[in-house]
What we know:
Order of helices and strands: HHEHEEEEE
Number of domains: 1
Number of helices: 3
Amino acid sequence: MSAGEDERQIRKLIESWIAASNARDLPALMDMMTDDVVFMTPGRAPFGKAEFAADVGRMKSVAIDAGVEVQEIEVFGPRAYIRNHIRVELTSPGQAPKRVSGYAMSVLRKEADGRWRIARDANLVMPEQA
């Protein structure tokens, strides 16, 4: 597969992740991660797939409107990294929307089925200043 095709598939993964996040589609999100995925966020110890699913479950009533601007994609054989700028608006019932934004870097792995999945994610999204 060409580097251009890998990049196209990675961009599709990013688009699919945002769409599944906005739709609250946990099964789709889980399918876009490796089984050994590790997430890193400010003020929290690294966590994996089970903790991610629990976090999504706790936020059932929160509406999500997320978007991403891809800053960089680099492919190295069956590994790649992406650097993005993310913005998210979270709306809980009866509350004003909360906006967060920031940069994220993810390491992707091309698995045996030929699909790219998120293996590591360092997310620096923080509340926006008013």
